[in-house]
Fold these 3 entries.
Entry 1:
Amino acid sequence: MDAARADAEAAEARVAQARSSALPSARVDAMIGAGRIDPGGFFGLTADDVTPRIAQVTVEYPLFTGGRTTAAVAQARSGADAARAGLDGTRRQLTVAVVAAYADVLTARQLVDSYTRMEGAVAEIVRGARLRFRVGDAASTELAQAEARLAEARAGLIAAQGRKASAEAQLNRLVGHEVSALAPLGELPAVPESLVEAMDSARAHNAMRAQAQSGIGAARAGVRGAEAASRPSIGTFVEAGHVRDQFFPNYRADSITIGARARWTFLDPGASARVREARASLAASEARARMADDAIEQAVIEAWHALASARGMVAASRDGVTAANEALRATSLEVRVGIKPQLAQLDAEREAIAAAARLAEAEGQLHVAARQLRALTGLE
């Protein structure tokens, strides 16, 4: 964001710089030296040491530049528009990235908590199986299966801890400081009601499209500037001069001049090539704009369908969580009365954890898809 803001500020400065070419300018030229002049007896002057000094002040005001100034200002304005669109696009991309990282941290933390509880439960079952095995009340197969479930739970916990550390590092990098407690994702942000509405909004407000259109504006101004380079320019000027010891000892001359100055480079072999270059740049900018329109249209379609898929995944995952929790409750009762072994409860708990993880993943994907669609359509 800092880099994008700095780019926007630099672009605004270029606009001011382009405008300044239509304003008066003033400069001072000065020189002082030490030497010796020998006029050779001309006018009866003899050789003498001199300190030549020259000072000249010039003020100029452009009256007509052939369109170069207006073209430069238009080109700079288009560049500033593109930079502002780039800043807006960077903010939207950062928003989507933060939401994705935020959702990933929530999911990873939930997985760590679930696998921690599961590891504790499995460890207790393994401890009981070992005791029963020692007294001959349990088979070695039951103990081996319980230990396998424990190893699986520990592996799941380690993987979840690794994912949590990676997700938190990513979120810390994006937000610029260490995060601690995080609130739930909350309500889903508003999105366009239909794909047609999303397309219309993207055409009107998408940052990448705005940048591409600004590029066309800058290229058109570049063509006008290249064509204006071969036209004459006219300006007024005022010059004041102060000269001492310049041509012979004790030479003095003070002057002031007011007038008009015209410049016209009527023969410039490279002028036509610069115009062709500018027109080719315009054609390239227009082609890039068409490519941007196609890419935006594809991205909006993908984001729209990703949002619809995520909604379906959330609904299915919620049903899965309800079913898994009900299966866990029923299995726990059956284990308690001895109908099923404790390993069956572990399997049910594992399925409940997996269902909860799928729901968390789906909810995170739903929010990311919504933010992505909002970013593409200019709503974010």
Note: Helices lie at 2-20, 68-134, 140-175, 195-205, 207-228, 271-336, 342-377.
Entry 2:
Amino acid sequence: MREACFDYLSLGGVFSTGPVSLLSGLNPRPLSLVLHFFAVAVYGVGRLCLPFPSPSRVWIGARLISGASGIIFPIIKAEGVRQMFFPATVPAYYRAPPVKGDH
């Protein structure tokens, strides 16, 4: 996963600006975090299985996806599925107050 993350960031463009904006706090959207997290995992599986997949590489890829799911799903559960994926449906009194400078 570490190598996949490094190589994903090395692709540049949206593959590096997205995660960097999440880490720097410029992008507070949790859905973006989930999408980039799984993009790194899928990228890692693709690197493992291409061009010639073997049963052992497919098994390692499945373990990589399983490990990534074991990390992100508890975070999604703790934050709330509705709050993460459908924030507009959450009543205003449950939402965080807007950040200063946000209009």
Note: The mean pLDDT is 87.
Entry 3:
Amino acid sequence: MTTSVRSSRDIIIRTGDWAAATEFYASALGFELVYRGQNMVGFETGSFRLYVEKGEAHGPVFDFLVPDVQAAKAKLVAAGCALVEEDASVPRCYLRDPFGVTFNLGLRDSSSP
């Protein structure tokens, strides 16, 4: 399958205890806060950037970027991935591969290689 899938260095988690998670990553691990939004914070960890989002808890979500989200989603679902969540207004979707890895499939900037 030839798609121009590229990973970003972002990993996202969601938690129902957002305040405690934010405090933990800032204090216990000492990660630098580099982004603060109403429902999400981002921490610089060194090799990756960790985003902690308010919401129903789930495990880590990796971030993969493609030039065409719908085309890549169709190919990946045909290859055995399961659609977990979708937001066409962004556009992006969460997929789980046949091996249990959940990832965000998002739109890659056309200027990126």
Note: Helices lie at 18-28, 69-78.
